[in-house]
Design goal:
This protein has 150 residues and is mostly helical. It has one domain. 85% of the residues lie in helices and 0% in strands. The longest helix has 33 residues. It is globular.
């Protein structure tokens, strides 16, 4: 119970800052936080280290996602690739590569932060829990769409 309280105190800023982005996003993020809290089973000291790193990482990922979606909007507005010059097509593709590289660099930077500050087994549990959460969320989403009447 004590660990949940500590985790909640570190997570509260995430929840408060996400309020402007819609209820669905808040619901998913709250669910993810509860999921990670349960799966990681962090001590009080580990939670003090982990949650601020996680919060910063999520904030930076959100910023990159927003930037990527803005760039993709212009790409989606293009109806035919044939209407573009070869240089324009090349620029769109290399911009996508650059964005994915920035995302990878961000992931590596935060992996290093986690590894420097927490035991590697906890870092491993975190990555495993993230993947399991994605699968669970997809499964939950698929099941909810199957149950909705057309």
């Amino acid at each position: 119970m004590k660990q949940l309280l500590i985790a909640f105190l570190f997570i509260l800023p995430i929840i408060v800052s996400a309020q402007g982005y819609g209820d669905r996003k808040n619901e998913i993020e709250s669910y993810k936080i509860a999921y990670l809290t349960q799966k990681l089973d962090l001590s009080a000291e580990e939670a003090k280290v982990f949650w601020p790193i996680y919060t910063d990482w999520q904030r930076e990922q959100d910023e990159l996602r927003k930037e990527r979606s803005q760039k993709m909007i212009s790409f989606r507005k293009i109806t035919e690739i044939e209407e573009l010059s070869d240089n324009q097509v090349q620029t769109l593709i290399t911009n996508d590569f650059n964005m994915r590289q920035r995302e990878l660099n961000l992931d590596r930077r935060y992996y290093s932060k986690l590894r420097e500050n927490l035991p590697i087994k906890i870092v491993g549990k975190f990555y495993r829990a993230q993947e399991a959460f994605k699968r669970e969320l997809l499964s939950k989403y698929r099941n909810s769409t199957k149950q909705q009447p057309n």
